[in-house]
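Example: Maltodextrin-binding protein.
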Amino acid sequence: MSMKKWMAVTAVASMAVSITACGGNNNNNNGNAASSAAPAASTAPAASTAPAASDAAASITPEDGASLVVWESKEERAFADAISKEFTAKYNVPVKIEELSPTDQVTKLSQDGPSGLAADVILIPHDNLGRAAAAQLVLPNDVFEAETKANNTEASITAASYDNMLYGYPRAAETYALFYNKSLVKEAPKSFDDVITFAKTFTDKSKNKYGIMWEVGNMYFNYPFIASNGGYIFGENGTNKDDIGINNEGAITGLKEYMKLKEVLPIKSGDITADIKRSLFNSGDVAMDINGPWELAGYKKALGDKLGIAPLPTIGGKTAISFAGFKIFAVNAYTQYPNAAKLYAEFASSKESQLKLNELVGSIPTNNEALADQQISGDPYISAFAEQTKNSQPMPSIPEMGNVWSPVNAALPEIWDKGVDPKTAMDKAAQQIKDLNNGASAQ
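Written out as structure tokens, the predicted fold is:
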């Protein structure tokens, strides 16, 4: 949530945030998208002739009379307000911010884009990109293609691309790491075996105290148990929908390690919510929490210098591989103002903007220079997340990724709550995903 929460939500299902304000656009016909059925033709040069990075912004100017509507997450509204003011001061283009959960924006765009009621610039978790691009709802990142690729991490560029074409403007990375209370855990555990050893000395269900807690029924947070020993969602770097790896030998090996942790977290999956976990960690009744940077500000306020963050412990002797999500801007293909919209997406995802976003909400930059900046490299908390991102995999962005969450989020509680054999549960989930991929369209 916050890629909520970027992501997780769909896993970023538990990270999903509800629509705070659907926006006046949608009811009052104030949108800036053209009401014609055909998407706006790009006024920018083709990708192959994109200007050099230093000249890209100078190559286009906002359309006469341009004004923009931007969809943003509630959690990052302070950033959106600040950046939109700076953009308006520079380009003399008014910007209206409307709050809409990033995980809902592609669906809303598909409904409201053709009729001219959608935002000009949207902010989405990268795993929603395939659905948007396949439906021709968003314009390619053509004017700023060379600049975007040069300035951002390889993983974020992969995440912002679909079918070998760059569409997105990366602005933040999200993965999760191990939060721990230094007054309770003297040193971050290196392995989940170490976690179990510690938790046996701390967990007391009768007192509602637990050595570790995380959302055990949410695939987003449990992907390390699938991937670290060789499992995966889709093969060929997440692009082959017919190669499903959630039930292969490596995935089952990792999920057996997952099952061991039930001994020190004897709670049903449905009884662990973000709010419950947050409260217990803040009060010192949970010693360790697997969570993302969206919790950082609150945890720092609650624990102060007792807060520690470390990369995830190893699983079965293997480095823990987390899911990486990326929040990316994209430009509505139906916008009346494609130049202004592209300029905003680039401006709001620049090095300076990413550092401002980090300052305001604790995000992890994708811009290489921002990552190297002392603001990031000198921050023990953000740098821990950045370290974990080195051992992370972007969520697949093909449309079929939408078919994965529900089956796996049903299988995990079967394993955790009922002790169902991981192979049995994941075979069932894999078959459900295959059926959805080959039948019902991804939603």
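Confidence is low (pLDDT under 50) at residues 1-30, 41-54.
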